[in-house]
């Protein structure tokens, strides 16, 4: 096995392991105000989303690329119309931001935290100088040409679990909540990730 391959596999193995023993599981986190507030806001978003995208229907299983893009744009426009006054902090409130900052900070400072920080940099539009820039704007489209950061498994294990429609991403130090089928930024919280 080549040394580079071995080091790469080792980094993946380290990043995949929970960094903090015992850590912030759902049981511990669900009692925290930022967590509770965030989960309630995600549920409210999903309710608005469900009503908004219903007329668009489901994408056909074997849709061609043009149909996929058209469907994505239709979903995004429906969600924008349903949330015309959406702004940063509606879902990722200051309490939720503080909660996510604390979890991320603990993971980066813990033994093995360097691997967590390195994983956040992978595909991060702020550190990867290839592809399109991402404008941080609620209800904005995440550019197809922009890279998407890798989320460390140890962070995902401690962050509130998201429904299949949503994903966490980092753009620089900013935590972004992305609606994947609509390719839409639904909220973001600055200064959550570690310093680059």
Give the helices and strands, then pairings.
Elements: H1 3-16, H2 26-29, H3 33-53, H4 65-82, H5 94-109, H6 113-121, H7 153-156, E1 166-171, E2 174-179, E3 184-189
Antiparallel strand pairs: 1-2, 2-3
Helix pairs in contact: 1-6, 3-4, 3-5, 5-6
List keywords for this structure.
disordered N terminus, 196 residues, 9% strand, mainly alpha, single chain
Brief summary of the model shown:
The protein has one domain (25-189). The protein is built from seven helices and three strands. The protein has helices spanning 3-16, 26-29, 33-53, 65-82, 94-109, 113-121, 153-156; strands at residues 166-171, 174-179, 184-189.
Mind explaining what this structure looks like?
The chain has 7 helices and 3 strands; from the N terminus they run H-H-H-H-H-H-H-E-E-E. It is mainly alpha-helical. The chain has one domain (25-189). A hairpin with a 2-residue loop joins strand 1 and strand 2. Helix 3 crosses helix 4, helix 3 packs across helix 5 and helix 5 crosses helix 6. Residues 1-25 have low confidence and may be disordered.
């Amino acid at each position: 096995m080549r040394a580079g391959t071995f080091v790469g596999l080792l980094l993946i193995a380290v990043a995949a392991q929970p960094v903090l023993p015992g850590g912030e599981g759902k049981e511990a986190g669900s009692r925290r105000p930022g967590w509770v507030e965030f989960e309630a806001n995600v549920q409210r978003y999903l309710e608005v989303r469900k009503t908004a995208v219903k007329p668009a229907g489901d994408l056909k299983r074997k849709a061609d690329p043009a149909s996929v893009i058209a469907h994505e744009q239709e979903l995004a426009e429906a969600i924008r119309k349903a949330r015309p006054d959406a702004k940063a902090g509606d879902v990722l409130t200051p309490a939720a931001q503080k909660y996510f900052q604390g979890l991320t900070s603990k993971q980066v400072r813990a033994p093995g935290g360097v691997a967590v920080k390195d994983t956040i940099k992978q595909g991060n539009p702020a550190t990867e100088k290839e592809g399109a820039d991402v404008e941080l704007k609620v209800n904005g489209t995440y550019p197809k040409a922009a890279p998407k950061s890798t989320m460390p498994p140890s962070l995902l294990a401690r962050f509130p679990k998201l429904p299949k429609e949503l994903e966490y991403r980092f753009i620089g130090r900013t935590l972004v909540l992305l609606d994947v089928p609509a390719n839409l930024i639904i909220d973001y919280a600055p200064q959550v990730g570690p310093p680059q």
